[in-house]
Task: inverse folding
């Protein structure tokens, strides 16, 4: 069974978004997201980023699709004609995963990353396909209109590998920490 990881930046009041954008501007946190979701173990493969319609739209037009990753959008309202040719569209997460599992794509697929938003994170965390959660805990409260769902009890925190900087990070006086949780 093809598995996936979830990656999100979450503030102290569990917010992830405001007005279709991120509530904060943390350059090095975004660089961590890019580095983590792009990193591949096998150079013949490419990672996949799966996101809801609103998350895709929230990415600045000149930065989407996200580079060096196969972009997958989940939507029942969009049509493929509204997306660039190299972006895949599916009505839900499980249909997308089943397509990625088919032999022609499977051999090209590296790590699959679920990159938001709220409902997609919820569906992902309850799936047996979910391996790890890469959560950046931002140690500040922000006004938000979109929130990270409750993390199910069967995830436990593990020690980050060398790819995740350890301990408190700081940018423009805002502190945050990279955490990794794994499904039992
Ligand atoms: N802090 C972070 O790490 C982070 C990460 C990602 C996004 N964000 C922020 O979050 C906001 C966007 O997220 P969002 O939660 O509002 O929207 P979203 O999840 O990106 O998009 C919602 C749409 O995705 C489709 N969808 C497919 N499967 C779904 C499922 N299981 N649950 C819910 N929707 C599903 C539906 O499209 P149809 O209606 O077309 O069927 C739904 O309307 C923005 O503010 C963005 O900046 C933050």
Result:
């Amino acid at each position: 069974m093809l598995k996936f990881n979830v990656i999100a930046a979450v503030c102290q009041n569990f917010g992830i978004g405001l007005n279709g954008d991120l509530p904060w501007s943390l350059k090095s946190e975004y660089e961590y997201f890019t580095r983590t979701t792009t990193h591949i173990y096998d150079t013949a493969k490419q990672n996949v980023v799966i996101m809801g319609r609103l998350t895709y739209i929230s990415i600045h037009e000149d930065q989407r699709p996200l580079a060096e990753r196969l972009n997958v959008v989940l939507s029942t309202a969009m049509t493929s004609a509204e997306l660039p040719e190299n972006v895949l569209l599916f009505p839900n997460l499980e249909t997308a995963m089943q397509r990625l599992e088919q032999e022609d794509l499977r051999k090209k697929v590296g790590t699959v990353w679920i990159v938001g938003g709220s409902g997609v994170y919820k569906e992902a965390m309850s799936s047996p396909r979910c391996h790890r959660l890469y959560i950046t805990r931002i140690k500040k409260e922000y006004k938000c209109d979109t929130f990270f769902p409750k993390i199910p009890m069967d995830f436990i925190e593990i020690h980050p590998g060398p790819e995740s900087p350890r301990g408190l990070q700081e940018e423009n006086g805002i502190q945050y920490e990279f955490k990794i949780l794994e499904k039992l």
Remarks:
- Residues 8-9, 16-17, 20-22, 51-55, 58, 74-78, 92-93, 115-120, 123, 146 surround NAP (CB under 6 Å).
- The radius of gyration is 16 Å.
